[in-house]
Design a protein that fits this description.
The chain contains nine helices and 24 strands. By secondary structure, the chain is α/β, with parallel strands linked by helices. It has two domains: about 55 residues, no CATH class; about 250 residues, Aldolase class I (TIM Barrel, Alpha-Beta Barrel). Helix 2 packs across helix 3 and helix 7 packs across helix 8.
């Protein structure tokens, strides 16, 4: 079911690069086919994401080459616990979003309508060069959803691939089939934000629907080689019931497999849900136990200090394979045999993308500037 959205009138001339995935309607409007909102635009209007707008009878991406800033993060912050642990990732985002989550934890970026905050400019080639020069193993499209700046993300991913730099998408997965194929063709890893397992939650609190996200997850599992992990931000009384967590985790096991890592993260009051309390650590642990009992092998807790819930264990012998204290790694008992990561104690395979040794970036967060376009 398409989400009907009124287009947003722009106050000035819309400028940018030509966008893909749109077509003309009989009534003269242009329909954006990037995401399931299918915004229908007249001249001078923008879609709900605000970064794609119509000018001169085409839809433009207005944030190509523009960013809210570049920062080197630990890869675990994305969060990705089974993808090159301990390594640094060059992270950036632009502005806008194609969902309208009332609980958005990055609302100052994703809900921004002020493009003057996008003061950093960089070409895809410059980003790839900066990643290589700073020792980053990957580049992450994050902070706001990269689906809405697909052309910029794909071009950057192409440039990174030429330099041997991997790319990571941190996304809600709310995207149509054709652009989804192009987008994930160039992504080595992804963290998909599965906000709830209730369509009413998606509709009432996010302005979207659940099924397109499930379709993205099925596509990633069955039609790509992209490594992916899941995140579920738990909000007390909204998406943390035992029944919903059982239903969601059983679906994951049945459709994506038991080896897909799932991160339960704690909500803090923000944006339009400041009346909700922070998620108790006990809630994260309860949901983690439900997921483990349902057959998921790697379930994590996040946004809280939890040595046990943030570490990786062998699903067979129970030994700690990767110890984590926030973003600092301690224990490392992962071996690589015939290009397969295995438990260093019993030899059981460990799903993910690993190397013989972990990185040593730790918990550092370093802002950098990249020469502009």
């Amino acid at each position: 079911m398409a989400q009907q959205v009124a287009a947003v009138e722009d106050t000035g001339r819309i400028e940018g690069v030509a966008g893909r995935y749109w077509h003309s309607l009989e009534d003269g409007r242009l329909q954006c086919d990037l995401c399931p909102r299918y915004c229908k635009l007249r001249e001078g209007q923008r879609g709900l994401c605000f970064v794609r707008g119509r000018m001169n009878d085409q839809i433009l991406l207005t944030t190509y080459g523009r960013s809210s800033g570049f920062c080197i993060d630990p890869i675990e912050k994305k969060p990705l616990n089974h993808f090159l642990p301990g390594t640094p990732v060059l992270s950036f985002g632009t502005a806008g979003c194609n969902l309208a989550c009332k609980f958005c934890q990055n609302w100052d970026i994703s809900k921004s309508r002020e493009f003057d905050r996008l003061q950093d400019r960089a070409s895809p080639e410059a980003i790839a060069e900066a990643a290589a020069a700073t020792g980053c193993r990957s580049v992450a499209f994050t902070y706001n959803d990269p689906v809405i700046f697909l052309e910029y993300a794909v071009d950057t991913a192409r440039a990174c691939r030429q330099r041997g730099i991997k790319t990571v998408a941190v996304t809600a997965g709310y995207v149509c089939p054709e652009p989804r194929r192009e987008f994930f063709e160039f992504m080595d890893a992804a963290n998909i934000d599965l906000k709830s397992f209730s369509d009413s939650f998606y509709y009432e609190l996010c302005g979207g629907h659940l099924q397109p996200v499930l379709d993205t997850l099925l596509y990633l599992k069955h039609e790509t080689n992209t490594w992916f992990e899941l995140t579920d931000l738990l909000i007390s009384g909204e998406n943390d019931s035992d029944g919903e967590i059982r239903h969601m985790t059983q679906w994951i096991v049945d459709n994506l497999g038991p080896g897909v890592p799932l991160h339960f993260t704690a909500f803090h009051p923000d944006w339009k849900m400041r009346d909700k309390p922070p998620t108790p650590k006990a809630t994260l642990n309860r949901c983690r136990e439900i997921a483990l009992n349902n057959g998921l092998q790697h379930v994590y807790t996040g946004n809280v200090h939890d040595l046990h819930g943030s570490s990786t264990y062998c699903q067979s012998c129970g030994a700690m394979l990767i110890g984590r204290d926030w973003y600092e790694l301690s224990t490392w008992s992962v071996l690589i045999r015939d290009e397969q990561a295995v438990c260093g104690h019993c030899g059981t395979p460990l799903a993910g993308v690993f190397e013989d040794r972990p990185g040593s970036w730790g918990a550092r967060r370093k802002a950098i500037r990249i020469p502009g376009v």
